[in-house]
Amino acid sequence: MSTALVCYYSKTGNTEKMAIRIAEALRKNGLAADLKKVESMDASDLLKYDCLVFGSPTYYGTMAWPLKKLLDESVTFHGKLKGRVGGAFASSGNIAGGNETTVLDILNALLIHGMVVQGQSRGDHYGPVAIGRPDERSVKSCERYAANLAALTKKLFP
Ligand SMILES: Cc1cc2nc3c(=O)[nH]c(=O)nc-3n(C[C@H](O)[C@H](O)[C@H](O)COP(=O)(O)O)c2cc1C
To answer: pLDDT of 68-81, one tens digit each?
Structure first.
């Protein structure tokens, strides 16, 4: 079975709610998905997965430092994630508060790792976003995103 990781940082629970929905939907769509807080991870754990999805609250328009720290530590095996499926999601406080720039900053790191990143033709184009606590629209976006990532992962890692 193809494997996936949903790794997130969340201080007040909003990003965590998105992470839970994404992990559940990945499982529903046939992946063996682990859900982990970024603080509990060692960067080398990332090597175990076919699909890696990272979530963060928006802090000053970008990802929170614990996630940035993990990604920076992954330089020790730079190149080894080449070809794996990557994704990102974010929760911000405000509508134009930088959730998309947060998602794009995470995806930037994944692209530099050589990972495969899929955009979304409908809804949240770069990856799911929420304003604070995820509402019904955001939950649906998380579920649709996870279904797309699962389909791609199963294709690349049957
Ligand atoms: C240090 C800090 C910086 C923040 N910066 C932004 C920001 O630039 N734009 C924004 O819309 N919200 C900002 N917020 C609000 C959080 O992104 C928002 O409350 C988010 O839903 C928190 O997610 P969490 O519950 O997963 O911790 C900031 C919050 C903190 C604590």
So the answer is: 999 999 999 999 99
Q: Which amino acid is at 84?
A: R
Region of residue 32 (left: phi > 0; alpha: psi -120 to 50; beta: else)? beta
Chain segment 140-151, per-residue pLDDT in tens: 999 999 999 999
74 pocket-lining for ligand 1 (C-beta < 6 Å) = no
> Is the distance from the beta carbon of residue 55 to the nearest atom of ligand 1 less than 6 Å?
no
Cβ neighbours of residue 102 closer than 8 Å, sequence gap 6 or more: 56, 57, 58, 59, 61, 62, 63, 88, 90, 92
Atom of ligand 1 nearest to the CA of 60: 8
Binding site membership of 132 for ligand 1 (Cβ less than 6 Å) = yes
